[in-house]
Amino acid sequence: MDKNIIIIDDSNSIRKMVEFTLKTKGYNVTTACDGQEGLDKLREKSHQLIILDINMPRVDGFKFLETVKGYEDCRKIPVVMLTTEGQDEDREKALKLGARDYMVKPFKPTELIEKVKQILSNDG
Amino acid sequence: MTDELHQDDLDTQLLAAMLADFLEESAEHLSVLDHSLVLLEQDPNNSEHLEEIFRRIHTVKGTASFTGLNEISLIAHRMEDILSVARAGKASLDKSIFDLLFSGIAWLKKLRQAAIQKKSPPDAGPFLERLLTALAEIQGKEPADYGAFTPGAAAPKEIMAETLKIRVEKMDAIMNLAGELIISKNKLNQLTRESEDRQLAEMTSDIQRISVELHREILEARLVPIGSLFNLFHGIVRNFSAQRLKKARLLIRGGEALLDKKIRDVLYDPFIHIIRNSLDHGIETPEEREKAGKPPEGKIEIMAARKGGSIEIRVSDDGMGIDVDNLVSKAVGIGLITEARAETMSADEKLNLIFHHGFSTARQVTESSGRGVGMDVVKRNISDLRGIIRVDSEKGRGIVFTIQIPMSMSVSKTLVIRERDIHIAMPFESIVETALLHKEEMEPLFKNKERTLSFGGRGIPLITLPEIFQRGFHSPIKFSFKGDMDSDLAMIQQKIYDLRIMGGADFFPVIIIGLANQKMAVMVDELLGTQELIQKPLSEFTGPVRGVEGAAVLSDGSIALFLDVRSLFEYV
User: What ipTM does this complex have?
Assistant: First the structure.
């Protein structure tokens, strides 16, 4: 089955980098530039993985996470948070809210591929 | 091992692409940051601005870190640290901190520029030290009187429509093709009118509608809000006034007015020039201002408003204005005008001396007389966009520049007229009214040396086009309707008039044209009707022709000259 991944980040260049990275490995990628757009696009089709930034306009990563965990059909989608160095509290908060894992910016594109592969294979 | 190599390649490739994206993306972040920082400084308790600044700095930091632009990432990181102290309500941002944050943005711009030009970055070490010291200081400070701040409480509104980036050259090519389509459509129209085929007529009317709509859509796609240009000036006003020990505030209104991206980009230089002049020569020091009974902080205002197919922009300051007498005596001093000429000049003409290119080469003169360095270049830039610039000033009170420019390029709605065997297109936006004057009204006008027509309660000059074109061959003679009419020209006038009377004309078509607040009447042979035309530049072989700014293909395939309305007003 094709795997659909959504990347939600307010930085255009990060979105594009993640999109291209995952597309080289054959994943389908949807992009959203903030939590609100993410919530809208999440409903358009089923997704197997969410990659989520924290600081974003309108709906930030935490609010997005809380909302998604309240959706019956989406709550089980694994979420990888994109954090930056020093955001330890944020990282903890995200994990408490139900994020599966996190990446610390900057990461190498291939590290992201590894992480995605690993999570998706665990999820079957 | 091979797999590892492959992975390295992939990483390098993807991150190189990301660098290009980041350099593009960061331009917007930095421009908004500059602007938001100014707003925050004016209203330090505004959590919305603080949140916006924090978020953008955070994004710049995070994104830059991927691309190897370490200095950018580090500076943004320290700025973020300082902002988060304020964001947590643990410190207030005072003037010194704002100064530092503004310098931070300037540094980020500098480093970005170096990355674009692939130069080695300037040494940011000492500045990073300053940021660290400042951070330590504010962390030690007492909590300030900040209102309760909840993150995310007031998220800034942004337009979240789907967008697609198109290269400018691609867009230009598309627009040119749509322009060609309009020309072909005009020809098709002509053929259809000559034939009686109903089906062809219907088809033509469809194509007519579609091609015009297509062209309009393309033009609209090129429009950007002019505020995106104005916002760049906040940081400039701030830095410039600080360097000159002056206080000045920039106020912007009407930034939502739209204009073609290309026009906006060309406007950057002239505006920077006007603003620098304001800060150099217009706005006084706080002490001087207080002596003159003005508030210590000067004001520069930029206002934009749409006027038909044009945008009018007023840039004003409340500085010392222009000392006209001084300006005139300097102009006489450097031989720009004679004393006799100076005596006959109107106040407006005197003020407009600042646009004379003779002034720009006399730097000392202009600096001591208050204005003018490079204003000729400003005027030329605006003229190249088919725009006009006017100046008004009152000594001691300030200065106002009024700039009028078309909001988009290319297709112009025009009135096509015939003058002898030449077709001339007049841009619609410059036409106030058309009228037919009876020969009995006309006759006295041509007998009188002061050929003015009464319009809207005031006298406006009446001219004919041959005068304008003829004038090109009589260059050194100053033609004036107020007494010293050149005899050759007077003769031409009389001949034109006689010819028409002999041709049995009872009525004379007259077009009233307006530019800013000036008006004049132009007598022509015949009004042919309106047409949407694509203006093309004249061939480089002809060079500039007085009174003509381009040419266009008419629906019957003949050529029309585009009238340069501005030059008409310069002529009177």
Answer: 0.87
